[in-house]
């Protein structure tokens, strides 16, 4: 009989870890993000638990492993990191080859082409750095938000996008990861319109 796996934290518990050097604003932002995840992905039923540096519960360490030695940070480093992270993402529009040809005929530039199983898809860069305006997302199209530098690529599917675009969106994201030289461990998250996560929304200003 196989041994039972070690116990893990209840999926209805969200742990917010706060480093010893974090400031009040960072602590508040982390709690706000956790609360947004609870409300949008756990239907408001999850319990938030604040974990102070050095007071990690055994269940947390069983999931993450032994705590390494963490380097001390500084306000200056935080400011540089915040600025870098805020501009790290790129937003692309993914369209069928036919739609892209029509757009090109109308004078729209900046297209690159990737293949899918049923034909060809074109990626048009919509914005070179975040934060983005929510108005850039259109229900008629699919979009790829490339945050591969942080290990994540998002695919946003407009509710009116054609079936070919919706089915090819994952392959397009994988092509972006390969082309941009991101780590093969980069995660792809598919988000239908209306089901955006807090982590996705953070790349946009004034999400409604």
TrEMBL record:
What domain of life does the UniProt record list for this protein's source? Eukaryota
Keywords for the protein's UniProt record, in alphabetical order: Actin capping, Actin-binding, Repeat
Domain Gelsolin-like residues, every copy: 12-61, 127-200
- A Pfam family annotated for this chain is Gelsolin
Q: Which InterPro entries match?
A: ADF-H/Gelsolin-like_dom_sf, Gelsolin-like_dom, Villin/Gelsolin
Q: Which GO terms describe its cellular component?
A: actin cytoskeleton; cytoplasm
Gene Ontology biological process: actin filament severing; actin polymerization or depolymerization; barbed-end actin filament capping; cell projection assembly; central nervous system development
**What GO terms are given for molecular function?**
actin filament binding; phosphatidylinositol-4,5-bisphosphate binding
Task: Tell me its family.
Answer: Belongs to the villin/gelsolin family.
Q: What is this protein called?
A: Macrophage-capping protein-like protein
